[in-house]
Amino acid sequence: MDWNLLSDVTSQALAAALQGSAARHGAIAHNIANVDTPGFIRSDVEFEEALALALQRAQRAPDRAGDLLSIVSLRPRPDRAALLRADGNSVDIDREMVALSRNALRYQASTEALSARIRMLRAVIRDSGR
């Protein structure tokens, strides 16, 4: 029996979403830091589709959830579709600030969902002793 209370598919998916959001935050911060660097190509961490696919697979094989969710790529990839300025830089500061805000909200939502899950588990454990 697995006694790790956070090894279920939902908790692991929330943890993967937090890791993805943290990785995206790093990419956005890197983009913002290089807003004035000639030739710099913005990057992003796109993990939602891969996470959704891994989650579907994990729901069919819950015993492999950790393995399936841990292979979601969190590497920044260059955004080749972004428009280039005259200096070859593709960072649009307004776009980055919106992405930063949106990402922060997603991270906060995932954190709150995982916290709620932990509170529920604590309540179950506490009430099971009565």
What does this structure look like?
The structure is a single chain. This protein has helices spanning 9-33, 48-60, 65-70, 93-128, and strands at residues 43-44, 77-78. It has 130 residues and is mainly α. The chain has one domain (9-128). Strands 1-2 form a two-stranded antiparallel sheet.
Write the layout of secondary structure elements.
Blueprint: H1 9-33, E1 43-44, H2 48-60, H3 65-70, E2 77-78, H4 93-128
Antiparallel strand pairs: 1-2
Helix pairs in contact: 1-2, 1-4
Strand content: under 5%
Radius of gyration: 19 Å
What structural class is derived from the secondary structure elements?
Answer: mainly alpha
- The end-to-end span amounts to 23 Å
Major beta sheet, strand line-up: 1-2
What's the shape? elongated
How is this structure best summarized?
This protein has 130 residues and is mostly helical. It has four helices and two strands; from the N terminus they run αβααβα. The protein has one domain (9-128).
